[in-house]
Amino acid sequence: MPAEELPAFVRGRERTAVRWVWDDTTRWYPALLASGVRVERCWDLRLAHAVLRRSPFVDQDLLVGGDTPGWDALAPVTTPDAALFPLDDPADRLDPVAEHARQRAAMTAATDPGRLGLLLAAESSGALVAAEMTHAGLPWRADVHAGLLTGLLGPRPPAGHRPAALERLLPQIRGALRAPTLNPDSPGELLRALRAAGLPVTDTRSWTLQELDHPGIPPLLEYRKLSRLLQANGWNWLDTWVRDCRFRSVFLPGGVVTGRWAATGGGALSVPAQVRPAAVADEGWRFVVADVAQLEPRVLAGMSGDAAMAEAARSRDLYQGMVTGGAVATRAEAKLGILGAMYGGTRGESGRMMPRLARRYPRAIGLVEEAARAGERGEVVRTLLGRGSPSPGGGGGDPEGPGEPGTPSGSPEDRDRRRRAWGRFTRNFVVQGTGAEWALCWLADLRNRLWRLGGTGPLEQRPHLVFFLHDEVVVHTPEHLAGAVDEEVRAAAAEAGRLLFGAFPIDFPLDVAVVSSWADAG
């Protein structure tokens, strides 16, 4: 079939219930969207392959074929260019029909095909969402952004020069540290200047500097704050990433081993509050911004089936619900203890909370403790729907690099440290990964609900998703549909809970705001 005939073919088949099977959504869907064609369902072989290759539900022998190494290595296309067939694309050397057959065989023989099937369907739907967000773009006012930069940094400087705000801070820093030629942008120079001023520091991280009592520290921290803004979201960012009043990044479902998303281009997953006032809805449109309150503790209650913790989660503030239930005395203790349980902070003040939490929430605390012990033993753990953690010593792993317990080198103390670090990783993997699964189900259902709200126009003329980050979504919608979008966002969250946890009574309350500017959502 000639490439130019594909959009019409897909549009015609979309009139009936169909699921498209393709090697990779990033290679096919952008060009379809550019032709005004929206796909309801797909099976993304690249993403499904990555999940199946690590899932403990799957017999790995069923996934092995001659081109399996190519599928293992296949990367997404990370340019918003809508070209259907990139030149010299490694996907062209793979056999999607054979890979699909292998995946179907692996799913049929899986120990829990229902859960795994839900995960793969949600992962593929997430790929459609990601492509649609790039296609539609996040509305962005370049004039507002430039005004924010001028207000914070001063007028745009010539290339190679500092903005006025940084130049004003520079003499204060140099004078206080008695370093007249100091370049604060050089970590090495800065560390030497701090030590020469008598400050006992081993690094120049901001949290280290915040502990110091010295007249040079406040202007230095302010300098670094503004410098980060300049580097991450300054005028060069504006020139590069905002076109036609839209910020378009490329979102990567499954970009992190836990299943959380990543992004490439423009730092889409870390847009600072300082520039969010530039995200302004089109005239006659609004943003509906929704985020889940305390997603991961709620997921922990649901996946462990801990009824007492689920009771605390009936409160909009789960931590306050723990106080009301008598688990701990204060909200601060509740938050510290649960975060310690999920992230491995089981010493110090958070460790002091653990015995009380374990008595009150034995199933929830027991689940993360067992995941930690499994990691320390070098075992693979899994999320609720079957995403497997990386094998210790097998590459990949925690983005923070906890080390690998299977590594034989080093002293006994080093090996013990690596085991504990991997245990902290697997402790969090099971919860963070299941939270990512809940969010994928939320997105997949919400995407279709929004489409049904919007009449007969193309994607960008209907309510549509423009941003997603872990537990927060932003929908761009015609103003008259904002109330309906609010209802559908909440309904999709409830449906995601039912999909993952069935009849178990766990709530996922949302904070929802209808605003003209993203910054107004709080």
TrEMBL record:
The segment(s) forming the DNA-directed DNA polymerase family A palm domain are 274-481
Molecular function via GO: DNA binding; DNA-directed DNA polymerase activity
> SMART domains recorded for this chain?
POLAc
Q: Which domain of life is it from?
A: Bacteria
Return one Gene Ontology term, BP aspect: double-strand break repair
Catalytic reaction equation(s): DNA(n) + a 2'-deoxyribonucleoside 5'-triphosphate = DNA(n+1) + diphosphate
InterPro entries, per the entry:
DNA-dir_DNA_pol_A_palm_dom, DNA/RNA_pol_sf, DNA_polymerase_A
Question: Segment Disordered: which positions?
Answer: 384-417
Query: Any idea which UniProt keywords this protein has?
Result: DNA replication
Q: Which PROSITE patterns match?
A: PUA
UniProt-listed CDD domains: DNA_pol_A
The residue ranges flagged as biased composition, category Gly residues, are 391-404
The answer, when asked if Aminoacyl-tRNA synthetase is one of the entry's keywords, is no
Q: What is the E.C. number?
A: 2.7.7.7
Give the enzyme class.
transferase
Tell me which NCBIfam families the record gives: PRK14975.1-1
Q: Which PANTHER family match?
A: DNA POLYMERASE I, DNA POLYMERASE NU
Q: What is this protein called?
A: DNA-directed DNA polymerase
Query: What's the source species for this entry?
Result: Blastococcus tunisiensis
